[in-house]
Amino acid sequence: MALTYSEYLKIDGLLKLQEPRSDGPEHDEMLFIITHQVYELWFKQIIHEIDYLKLRLEAKETAPALNTFKRILTILKVLVAQLDILETMTPLEFLSFRERLETSSGFQSHQFRVLEYLLGNKSHQTLENFKKGTPLHRELDRRFRERSLWDSFLRYLANCGYDVPTFALQRDLTTSVDASEDIQTLLKSVYREDFLVASICERLVDLDEGMQEWRYRHLKMVERTIGNKQGTGGSTGVDYLKGTLFKPLFPDLWAIRNEF
Ligand code: HEM
């Protein structure tokens, strides 16, 4: 028999994955579940694309890299815009099922942590939040030790003929990237001399800004929904989230703006 839409996409299984826990169930819990599931699917796609982007950069394939950036950035816009939908839920509507979430929280999203690692935000604490010996811990540990997008970008620059300092190419991959004056000097010459390579830099800035935008919008959504209450994940909630704002992923690309 010819393959059907449902069979190819496994729609039957997919539509069974939404299981509200509240009595009734409460009307808004469906939206809450579907929104999170859609986020996780997009996280999966973004991770897939960043893995690909790293390879394209390291192979000095500028055109496919730019196209992949465009795809990732477009998905990121959708991720930010999606928050508008959850904001149609009032604080009381959320409260009607919130206790059924118990201690679960987006804080535990392992794909979000993979994404952070891929983007160079290498917090060891994040890894410790996952139980050692589990498949999730193993996967995250692997991501913790591998090159971030920034590391692949530095290799791209080296392959384009730029004199990238050895310390940057051989840095400890289990740490976040620190700002470096040497790299900033190099980047300033990229912006002045090579529009195409500078376009790659600008797409990295787009990505950095997009992630910061998501964090800000998520925080405001949380604030309007639960105020200053503790998070279900056990943090101080909005106060904790405020501490994650305005932290650039690629500090050198922001620092050079003062100097043109
Ligand atoms: C009404 C909706 C939501 C509320 C009230 C909410 C609330 C919170 C709170 C309070 C935290 C802090 C950790 C904690 O103690 O739980 C948090 C973290 C987080 N949430 Fe949400 N959230 C909502 C929707 C979402 C959605 C749709 C996503 C998408 C996957 C998401 C992803 C995350 C992530 C990734 C973190 C960790 C951020 C970090 O540690 O930097 N949240 N959320």
Number of helices: 15
* Count of spatially separate domains: 1
- The overall pLDDT average reads 97
**Biggest sheet overview:** none
Second rung of CATH, namely the architecture:
Up-down Bundle
CATH topology: Methane Monooxygenase Hydroxylase, Chain G, domain 1
Kindly, what is the distance between the CA atoms of the first and last residues, rounded to a whole number of angstroms? 64 Å
Beta-sheet strand percentage? under 5%
CATH classification class: Mainly Alpha
Order of helices and strands: HHHHHHHHHHHHHHH
**Uncertain stretches:** none
Helix content: 55-70%
Structural class: mainly alpha
Identify every distinct bound molecule in the structure, by name, code or SMILES. protoporphyrin IX containing FE
The gyration radius over C-alpha positions equals 21 Å
Describe the global form: globular
Q: Work out the number of β strands.
A: 0
Write a brief caption for the model.
The chain is mostly helical and 260 residues long.
Which key terms come to mind for this protein?
single chain, mainly alpha, 260 residues, globular, Methane Monooxygenase Hydroxylase, Chain G, domain 1, binds protoporphyrin IX containing FE, 15 helices
